[in-house]
């Protein structure tokens, strides 16, 4: 299959600082790639370049066959809306229940209160309930996001991605705030849905052992350079 995401020699500088130096890698549909690297390595900048919240100085970012550098304003809005985003701090609307937070995925991007108070169809609600069921949270559908545990909130974020029908998910340290059992649970669900729906996942992690256990491939960065791109099975957790 053609890659869902391809970075070709992307370079990004901030003044004289080189945040990304000719970084290249690709992610196939259904593949989970862990992005490792110490603080300042360039991980957030990669995410920003993929969403085109930052413009690359050189190189190309191709998402689902399209060079995103060439998108006009409207196409760029659609591009951003199609990417599923999962953050360290959950980014749910705390006063809203799980189903409404999930439905926000039907609107694309991160929900705003105004966006989700629009009307949703019965079909939308069924899609959201199916997504919550898939992540094991059907019985929590009508509970407020802030009444859920961290692991449950992160699974609502995964349900939101399912409802959004994203084919590319960017997860930025999604388990950094969770206890080990919840982290394992969230990464298992993420990996399973990637397989089931052929979703490509780029997941920043800071624990190599989790990357080895849950990712298909590991990409490691250091000072803006790619220093490793290998199957997770070939990487020892000791590295
Ligand atoms: P990571 O997410 O791996 O911690 P970042 O992508 O945030 O790394 O940062 C990579 C490098 O780019 C760092 O040296 C950082 O200081 C620099 N950088 C990132 N964003 C900016 C910015 N908006 N202005 C100036 N320098 C930046
Ligand atoms: P977390 O650890 O994510 O904070 P809990 O462990 O409290 O959440 O899980 C809440 C309920 O959901 C439990 O009954 C648990 O068995 C169930 N559950 C957890 N993960 C899943 C899943 N992936 N699929 C189905 N049910 C799940």
TrEMBL record:
UniProt entry tagged with the keyword Cell membrane: yes
InterPro entries from the UniProt entry: AAA+_ATPase, ABC_transporter-like_ATP-bd, ABC_transporter-like_CS, ABC_transpr_PhnC, MetN_ABC_transporter-like, P-loop_NTPase
E.C. numbers: 3.6.3.28
Keyword Signal applies: no
Name of the protein in its database record: Phosphonate ABC transporter ATP-binding protein
Keywords, ordered alphabetically: ATP-binding, Cell membrane, Hydrolase, Membrane, Nucleotide-binding, Translocase, Transport
Gene name of this polypeptide: phnC
Organism (species): Xanthobacter tagetidis
GO molecular function: ABC-type phosphonate transporter activity; ATP binding; ATP hydrolysis activity
UniProt record similarity statement: Belongs to the ABC transporter superfamily.
Stored NCBIfam families: ABC_phnC
